[in-house]
Specification:
- By secondary structure, this protein is of the alpha+beta class.
- It contains six helices and six strands; from the N terminus they run βββααααβββαα.
- A three-stranded antiparallel beta sheet has the order 1-2-3, covered by helices on one side.
- Helix 1 packs parallel to helix 4 and helix 3 runs antiparallel to helix 4.
- The longest helix has 24 residues.
């Protein structure tokens, strides 16, 4: 996944200056510094974000540049790096230049991925369930991190099989490999004091 995030919002600082906070440098929006921007530059950034968001919904987060051939994917990443550097430096001329180039880059990759017959992301392809100890949260399970949407409804938590498998102890996998259809209902750490009743 690239360092870029596509979410952002505009507001005014205490002096009434138009500013924008952005997460493209790999930090959350809340941790990013407030960046003053002219109206023209802000429009370029927001236009870029709209296209990037559309591509994430269509192809998955950070997936599009990996669907095309390596040379084209590397060109896209190089252009993305230039855009991120311009944002980090708050170089408005370069932001406008590389922001416009990024829109064209997305268009090229989108058409190439379609030409190659690559599969798009189905936003409705998930398993929905509840957690017994997380009331009020609906869980949507998808296969890969690329399928987890950046924007989601309130009260919904997306998780993917790729990340969850890291939390499954090897013992559970060995049990399931040995006993088909086995369902593990509870586990206790080895250092837990047994609380089974004494049989006498």
């Amino acid at each position: 996944m690239s360092a870029m995030k596509t979410r952002g919002y505009s507001k005014r600082d205490k002096r009434g200056t138009n500013v924008r906070q952005t997460g493209r440098t790999g930090h959350s929006l809340e941790s990013c510094p407030t960046v003053p921007m002219s109206a023209e530059t802000r429009l370029v950034v927001e236009a870029h974000d709209m296209v990037a968001r559309e591509m994430e919904l269509k192809w998955g987060v950070g997936r599009l540049q990996r669907l095309v051939d390596d040379a084209l994917g590397q060109k896209f990443q190089a252009q993305l790096d230039k855009f991120n550097i311009a944002l980090a430096r708050n170089d408005e001329a370069d932001i406008r230049k590389h922001g416009a180039s990024m829109k064209r880059a997305y268009d090229v990759l989108d058409k190439e991925a379609e030409k190659l017959g690559c599969k798009t992301i189905d936003p409705n392809d998930y398993w929905e369930m509840k957690h017994p100890r997380a009331e009020g949260i609906t869980i949507r399970l998808v296969r890969t991190a690329e399928e987890m949407p950046v924007m989601k409804p309130d009260g919904v938590a997306y998780v993917c099989a790729e990340e969850m498998i890291e939390f499954v102890p090897p013992t559970v996998l060995m049990i399931k490999e040995a006993f088909g259809g086995a369902k593990v209902t509870d586990m206790k750490p080895k250092d837990t004091v047994p609380d089974d009743p004494i049989p006498f």
